């Protein structure tokens, strides 16, 4: 019996739905997306990602943002495709894609960086490659460490599938 006949057709996943991935990208924050308009867009994205079964973390400041999606491979690819088509002005750069066993985050989490002492400690002292926060100057290891430090108390308590 081969693999195609050993599973009922409704449970065999042909598009990789059973494979979870983590995708991280960087982009430049544009001045046109600020204030109330930005808050509305972020809420729309929260609902969209929730419907898709994707968890996400987003770090944003006045110049840049870093976002990580985790979820089923086809859905994460759909979300990235939508970002590329809906927001061509931000020119997202994918910095890491990897398969994961379970989702690390719980829901849709956002952190807006300010000039506070705590934020400066995270961004400049430990993870930045220069005097100003610029994720384009950070290595993948620095980005991963930075995201884990910023959201250290927000990790999922179990697997999300």
UniProtKB/TrEMBL annotation:
Domain named BLUF: residues: 20-111
Superkingdom of this protein's organism: Bacteria
A Pfam family that the UniProt record links to this protein: BLUF
PROSITE patterns with a match to the protein in the record: BLUF
Parts of the chain that traverse the membrane: none
InterPro entries (UniProt xref): Acylphosphatase-like_dom_sf (IPR036046), BLUF_domain (IPR007024)
Protein name: BLUF domain-containing protein
Lineage, highest ranks first: Bacteria, Pseudomonadati, Pseudomonadota, Gammaproteobacteria, Moraxellales
């Amino acid at each position: 019996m081969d693999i195609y006949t050993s599973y009922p057709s409704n449970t065999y996943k042909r598009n990789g739905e059973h494979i979870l991935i983590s995708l991280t990208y960087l982009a430049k924050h544009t001045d046109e997306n600020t204030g109330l308009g930005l808050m509305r867009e972020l809420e729309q994205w929260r609902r969209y990602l929730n419907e898709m079964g994707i968890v996400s973390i987003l770090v944003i400041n006045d110049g840049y943002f870093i976002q990580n999606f985790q979820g089923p491979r086809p859905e994460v690819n759909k979300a990235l495709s939508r970002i590329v088509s809906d927001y061509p002005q931000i020119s997202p750069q994918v910095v890491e894609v990897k398969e994961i066993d379970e989702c690390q985050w719980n829901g849709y989490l956002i952190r807006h960086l300010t000039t506070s002492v705590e934020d400066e400690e995270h961004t400049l002292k430990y993870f930045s490659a220069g005097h100003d926060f610029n994720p384009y100057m950070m290595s993948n290891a620095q980005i991963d460490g930075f995201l884990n430090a910023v959201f250290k108390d927000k990790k999922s308590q179990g697997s999300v599938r």
